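Please produce the structure of this protein holding zinc ion.
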Amino acid sequence: MSDQKTALIISAHAADFVWRCGGAIALHQKLGYQVTVACLSYGERGESARLWKEGKTLDQVKSIRRTEAENAAKALNVHDIQFLDLGDYPLDLGRESQDRVVDIIRAVQPSFMMSHSQYDPYNTDHMRTTDFALTCRMIAQAWGHNPGEKVLGAPQLYLFEPHQTEQMGWKPDTFLDITEVWDNKRAAIECMEGQQHLWDYYTNVAQNRGNHFRRNSGGMSGGRAAQYAEGFQSVFPRTVDEL
Ligand SMILES: [Zn+2]
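Below is the modeled complex.
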């Protein structure tokens, strides 16, 4: 039995983990966690507009998106990145995909998990991924599923920040200071050459969440001087001995 701390990110498309939790990944790698990223698809049809406009084929788009995601993962020091190639718009989240993700969850035994907001009318791949992640987490906890394997405990599922926060009904309850790994996150963002229109947008998001970190950690009365942060909404209650 290993006491290695681990985390698992379930990302609908190849780039989602970069914008939404790249800082959390880089920070936890620095803290000694092994962070695994499972990309359910390359986002080849729905999140690669620039490449299609350039006349690339489906295989070329997938290959370019994979390389970008691998480069971003390197910038974040990701322990392991897996591509399930389930197609996008829409994802194929059938039984076979489910079994594969349950196997990943049981192999990783994450201390915490991350995925998308629970509602996303702009991108149903995202909200279906979260529902799928919850289903796979539940199956991984079932003693009757592949008996003999190590059963999953109860890792928190953190929902990372979606693109249009209010429309998704997403409300953060956790801010993570990512200032010390901001350079890694920005480097990972710049690996996403097909989505340059988002680089500054997500830099601004991190700065705004840095402001919220400062305010909620004490503001003018001793708040931490975070410059960049990421927000998360947790699904499950915390179990504590002290408040
Ligand atoms: Zn996406």
